[in-house]
Amino acid sequence: MILVEIYVPSMERKYEFRLNEDVAAGVIIEELSSVICQKEQCRVCGKVNDLMLLLPEKSRIISSGLSLYENGVKSGDRLMLI
């Protein structure tokens, strides 16, 4: 498990999550969007499959088919959900 900060620019909010680094990023994106929408009492506009995770400090889009570990995401990283 790794601890990361997720910034969601459309909501101008930051969230801290403990994530399993061995799970595919696509699954993580679905779970993140679900948890954030439940907390904020909102819904995703469009398709969840269109959301992306970015690693802004390395100027990289995280591949949804690979795990967070395979994408080089480490504990303490800051990610962006767009």
Order of helices and strands: EEHEEE
Count every helix, treating DSSP H or I runs of 4 or more residues as helices: 1
Strand content: 25-35%
Taking the sheet with the most strands, its summary is:
5 strands, mixed
Strand order of the largest sheet: 2-1-5-3-4
Assign an overall shape: globular
Radius of gyration: 12 Å
**Category from helices, strands and their pairing:** alpha+beta
Number of strands: 5
Q: In percent, how helical is the residue content?
A: 10-25%
Question: N- to C-terminal separation?
Answer: 23 Å
Mean pLDDT: 94
> What are the low-pLDDT stretches, counting only 5+ consecutive residues below 50?
none
Would you give an account of this structure?
The protein is of the alpha+beta class and about 80 residues long. Helices cover about 20% and strands about 30% of the residues. A hairpin with a 4-residue loop joins β3 (about 55) and β4 (about 60). The mean pLDDT is about 95.
In short:
This protein is of the alpha+beta class and 82 residues long.
Features:
alpha+beta, globular, 1 helix, 20% helix, single chain, 82 residues, 5-stranded mixed beta sheet
Q: What's the helix and strand layout?
A:
Layout: E1 2-8, E2 13-19, H1 25-40, E3 53-55, E4 60-61, E5 78-81
